[in-house]
UniProtKB/TrEMBL annotation:
Described function: Catalyzes the isomerization between 2-isopropylmalate and 3-isopropylmalate, via the formation of 2-isopropylmaleate.
UniProt protein name: 3-isopropylmalate dehydratase large subunit
Gene name, Swiss-Prot/TrEMBL: leuC
Pathway involvement of the protein, from the record: Amino-acid biosynthesis; L-leucine biosynthesis; L-leucine from 3-methyl-2-oxobutanoate: step 2/4
Cofactor entry: [4Fe-4S] cluster
Length: 419
């Protein structure tokens, strides 16, 4: 019987032949925490009585969720993390470096075939590189920091095949919102989702990160796009210490579910408050008043997303009734966007560009909405309180939909602003 990608990678990291349903202890290639979770990692690591990390080069702390610090309490946590990193000689990506799910792959810490753990639920993002990656709790992460291992139950796998081409004004975010709306928030609980098809093959790496980032929003343990030439080209030069070891599913691999979609039949999508699977097409919501528009996050704060936004805003302005907040996903992306003139276009159009990080998405600072206010966002979650106020309303959409809505002051169809 053939194996899925998850069965192959976990077997390789356990040193034994595994199939779905088996339990095993596996070696970890990389692990990390962010400032919202790493304080507990530090405490649990010290409680174990371990003096040194299993490998100083295979763990990092990324200060991104409240960066720069919005208050004294957070500042104390940040100092604790900096002190721990210096004491143990560990990697630290400090304020301004960017969102962990951009910074980690951007700096070459993940390769095809790797097994990665992060103390953050959207660690599944790195499946875009053909890796198995998943979020765990801080205590589990502390264990991995101490010994370089963790336990896994080998998941069953779902195969998703997307045929055809995305239409004008339709992006990877629309595609994954459509799929989540179809499968629902628990449709892939503790399963590994593999993405295939001509549409997936045609996606840029930025777009593939968007797809895999939101796998957890349908309950997936892992979400994976098999590595191809695009993947290897994106990785070229990022890690000179190791070679990629991509794994591919066998033709006779067994899946719990196979779903097929026609990309050409999908239009701009939105997730309505207060659930990611509360799906709607843009035509249903056109004209809905908004107070804030947000472009950024680990889902859609990459260079391609900023290019889409700048292209739509060139020669236009954001509505005077809308606060338009932009957060590049990393310092590197910020710099690239500056060199291309994108930041100037966004600022001239009325955008407020903030430090690369997660602040507005998780509601720590840089754009917390008021009671009753409505936000349209490129983020991955729209639960009550997600952006810091449980009495606000969040719609999720693509960068193009967010920008069109910012221009009009209400939810708008992006196709009207695209050539």
């Amino acid at each position: 019987m053939g194996k899925t990608i998850a069965e192959k990678i976990l077997s390789n990291h356990a040193g034994q032949d595994l199939k779905a349903g088996d339990f095993a202890v596996c070696n970890i290639d990389f692990c990390f925490g962010q400032d919202g979770t790493s304080g507990i990692i530090v405490d649990r690591f010290r409680a174990l009585g371990i003096k040194e990390a299993f490998d100083r080069g295979k763990f990092a702390i990324v200060i991104d969720h409240s960066a720069p610090s919005p208050n004294m309490g957070v500042s104390a946590v940040h100092k604790k993390l900096r002190d721990f990193s210096r004491e143990k000689g560990l990697l630290l990506y400090d304020v301004g470096c960017g969102v962990c799910h951009q910074v980690i792959p951007e700096n070459g810490h993940v390769l095809p075939g790797d097994l990665v753990l992060g103390a953050d639920s959207h660690t599944c993002t790195y499946g875009a590189l053909g890796a198995l990656s998943t979020g765990v709790g801080s205590t589990d992460l502390a264990i991995s920091l101490a010994c370089g291992k963790n336990w896994f139950k080998v998941p069953q796998s779902i195969k998703i095949v997307v045929h055809g081409k995305l239409g004008r004004g339709v992006y990877s975010k629309d595609l994954i919102l459509h799929i989540i709306g179809d499968l629902k928030a628990d449709g892939a609980t503790y399963q590994s989702v593999e993405f295939y098809g001509s549409c997936i093959d045609a996606l840029s790496m930025d777009a593939r990160f968007t797809i895999c980032n939101m796998g957890v929003e349908m309950g997936a343990k892992f979400s994976v796009i098999p590595a191809d030439k695009k993947t290897l080209a994106w990785l070229s030069g990022r890690n000179k210490m190791r070679k990629p070891s991509p794994r591919y599913a066998d033709k006779d691999a067994v899946y719990s579910l196979v779903k097929e979609y026609d990309a050409s039949r999908i239009g701009p999508q939105l997730a309505k408050p207060h659930a990611v699977d509360n799906n709607a097409v843009v035509e249903e919501l056109v004209g809905t008043h908004i107070d804030e528009a947000y472009l950024g996050t680990c889902t859609n704060g990459r260079l391609e997303d900023l290019e889409i936004a700048a292209g739509m805003l060139r020669g236009r302005r954001v509505s005077k009734n809308v606060r338009f907040i932009v957060a590049p996903a990393s310092r590197n992306i910020y710099l690239q966007a500056m060199k291309k003139g994108l930041i100037g276009i966004l600022v001239q159009a009325g955008a407020s560009v903030v430090t690369p990080g997660c602040g507005p998405c998780v509601g720590t600072h840089n754009g917390v909405p008021s009671v009753g206010e409505v936000v349209v966002s490129t983020a991955n979650r729209n639960f009550k309180g997600r952006m810091g106020n449980p009495e606000s309303f969040i719609y999720l959409g693509s960068p193009a939909t967010v920008v069109a809505s910012a221009i009009e002051g209400c939810i708008a169809d992006p196709r009207a602003y695209l050539k």
